[in-house]
Amino acid sequence: MKNAVVTGGGSGIGLAVAQRLRADGMHVATIDIASSDDEFAHTADVTDRAAVEAAFAAIRSQLGPVTVLVNAAGQEKFKRFADLKFEDWQRIIDVNLNGVFHCIQTVLPDMVEAGWGRIVNISSSSTHSGQPFMSSYVAAKSAVNGLTKSLALEYGPSGITVNAVPPGFIDTPMLRKSEERGYLAVQQSIDSTPVRRIGRPEDIAAACAFLVSEEAGYITGQILGVNGGRNT
Ligand code: NAP
């Protein structure tokens, strides 16, 4: 049995990934900024290194060493670039990029010790072509893709694969909030998506389940778009 941690596991894509990995037979703990009564749901802001380390320590004492990590915690920001305060920029880089740094660095010793590991970073299809009013988010997610490729090269010899999944439009609370605030026209997005539907969190979970599996051991440093054919 493998032990897995999914960040952002309290909602949307992270929740679906956690459920899918459990269904596939893994022990799964989650880390999310929102609290939960679930004994395997740990509360931490991924930007807070001490909180991340405490959450992983608690998970290790519950489950043992962790050899699978899916980084799905994320936060968007829609603002004209000229109106973006440096604090806004900093927070988005902090959550979407530095949070990934903290979680990977904290879990890596377990994977190196095991000589086996799987890391999947959820980036964004917006990194393919850019997105107006989302400069900080697209910058952070693009950096996550770069981090993914570099770590794949660095840790391949240790038996650890590192891949990214950039989702297209996925029906989650984050996407619906963007729609409510007038930043996204869902029907228009569906019309411009070749498979003509919105993505489901389970679509992303299926890709993650494959990438963390034993049989995906020869796949690393890849950016696997799950986007219905849009932004490929
Ligand atoms: P979601 O439903 O909002 O889930 C994200 C989860 O991450 C939430 O539970 C959120 O908590 C948590 N979170 C936010 N900031 C955090 C922090 N600092 N520390 C720990 N947890 C934090 O959004 P989602 O759509 O499932 O997004 C999952 C990932 O997919 C994100 O990285 C997102 O950028 C990416 N993505 C989504 C789409 C899409 O169309 N949905 C497209 C491309 C990429 P709160 O709700 O309390 O903030």
TrEMBL record:
Determine the domain of life of the protein's source. Bacteria
One example of a Gene Ontology biological process annotation:
monocarboxylic acid metabolic process
Keywords from UniProt, A to Z, are: Cell wall, Oxidoreductase, Secreted
In terms of InterPro entries, this protein maps to: KR_dom, NAD(P)-bd_dom_sf, Sc_DH/Rdtase_CS, SDR, SDR_fam
Q: Domain Ketoreductase: where?
A: 2-168
Q: Where can this protein be found? A: Secreted, Cell wall
Catalytic activities:
a (3R)-hydroxyacyl-[ACP] + NADP(+) = a 3-oxoacyl-[ACP] + NADPH + H(+)
Q: Which SMART domains match?
A: PKS_KR
Gene Ontology MF, one: 3-oxoacyl-[acyl-carrier-protein] reductase (NADPH) activity
Tagged with keyword Oxidoreductase: yes
Keyword Secreted, does the record have it? yes
What family does this chain come from, according to its entry? Answer: Belongs to the short-chain dehydrogenases/reductases (SDR) family.
Protein name as annotated: 3-oxoacyl-[acyl-carrier-protein] reductase MabA
- Upper taxonomic lineage: Bacteria, Bacillati, Actinomycetota, Actinomycetes, Mycobacteriales
